[in-house]
Amino acid sequence: MPVRSCVTWNAMITGYCSQRESARSALVLFGDMLDDVCGVKPTDTTMVCVLSAASQLGVLETGACVHGYVEKTMCVPDNDVFMGTGLVDMYSKCGCVDSAFSVFKRMKEKNVLTWTAMATGLAIHGKGNEALELLDVMQGSGIKPNAVTFTGLLSACCHSGLVEEGLHLFHLMKSQFDVVPRMQHYGCIVDMLSRGGHLKEAYEFVVGMPVEPDAVLWRSLLSACNLHGDVAMGEKVGKKLLCVQSTQSYVDSTPKSEDYVLLSNVYAFAERWEDVEMVRQEMKVKGIENKAGWSSVQTSSHLQYVPNDLKISVE
Predict the structure, then answer these.
(1) Global pTM?
(2) Mean pLDDT for the chain overall
(3) Do 119 and 152 touch, CB atoms closer than 8 A?
């Protein structure tokens, strides 16, 4: 296209942001937009999408630069609920919860998404008590928490070891706020109990659910069994997990190498080498390969992608 309008740029950037694996492309395209000879200026929509891309990648330096650009050339985020919420989310996911809270406090208007972003930010940084206190302040402001808010709050309890508080919150969610529990909420409770070593309670919670547990729940519990060295429970949960994968058809139920590795590790902990070999053979028969993981970290203006021991620098 010889001439690109702001609508065109926004459509492309939004499209990239909607796909997590293309978040970096959204940032590259934003740079091209700023360099466009036609002098097209970013809008609020552009900046919210770019902040989303930065938060997905966890690139603090880029996100902070975007914040600075907004402060200098556009509206002050304090007066824009969507821009402010985007900044709270970005700083939280990039590890700067104090900066997120600073933006949050300055905002003159907050909606349920803003409160949820802040609660989730506190949650992922282990500030469970602060997240629960935020719920009281939120209610005092006349904002009713929704299902996503409770996912963040339950996650806060999970990461902070607040088991009793989490169970109480789960009860309040249903009885006081009429929020029907979703699989994410059940997952938070299972993860919370499992992290605390309450494997029996976690198992009983899963089998007592009013909906059929998915592979993610069983996988979380199996990982905890491996962590705590509970071989008997791990074997039982591992069989449940593989059974779920054979009967459910959605994406999270497809066989994953990590599931077999976890079960194999449970057997290895008990020195049941024949069972370890059996699991490995089953992986071979089903054509399941142990896929390498990867991570990324921003250093200066570079993104360092690290799959296994191989480091790839991306400008």
Answers:
(1) 0.75
(2) 84
(3) yes
